[in-house]
Amino acid sequence: MEPQGVIFDLDGTLADTMPLHYEAWRTMCGRYGLELSEDRFYALGGRPTVEVTKLVVGESGQPLDVLALAAEKERLFLELIDRVTPIESVVDVARKFRGRIPLAVATGADRAIGSKILGYLKITDWFDALVTSDDVARHKPEPDIFLEAARRIGIAPGGCLVYEDADLGIEAARRAGMDVVDVRTFYRPRRVTPGELKP
After folding, report:
1. Is the pTM of this model over 0.85?
2. Mind listing the pLDDT tens digit for each residue in 111-150?
3. Is 82 helix (H, G, I), strand (E, B) or coil?
4. CB 170 within 8 A of CB 73
5. Is residue 128 annotated as a catalytic residue, yes or no?
6. Cβ count near 15 (within 10 Å)
7. Integer CA distances (angstroms), 186 to 3, 23, 76, 80, 189, in order
8. Which of 9, 16, 144, 165 is catalytic?
């Protein structure tokens, strides 16, 4: 059955940004002696930058400014944004449903970054709602961001189909009572540290 509405994650789902985000993380962490492996970065997919920064700074035991470091990581990512490309197989899904049923983006990114990525891909106007980490108090794996997206497009959660690429996001979609497609079953991003991936 065709869904009544479709909700897309952004990073690693519509946009091939995850390697660029990790490059930015690796640069920022390297400056301050912080640790964030690529495998762990993917395991934390869907969490806002501030939450991940708080985690790695806390583990380091250093008295660093979490907000300043999170902002620095985002600036480093924006320096790479001209390398962002669409994940065509997922963008094709959005193209297919565009104008036929309500569509939303629900992302762990903040609004400024999410808007810039959609704008760079020239698909901003395809979506009826953009819900970001700025819009909810609880983030993935809590269901709040998907429930808010469903509310904004006027579709009951059970009528929504979610496209996601991260375990936390998939759990959040399921907790929201939505069907979910795991993008990783047909798309894998480039690895920045190829030897690190565990089978």
Report:
1. yes
2. 999 999 999 999 999 999 999 999 999 999 999 999 999 9
3. helix
4. no
5. no
6. 27
7. 20, 23, 29, 25, 10
8. 9
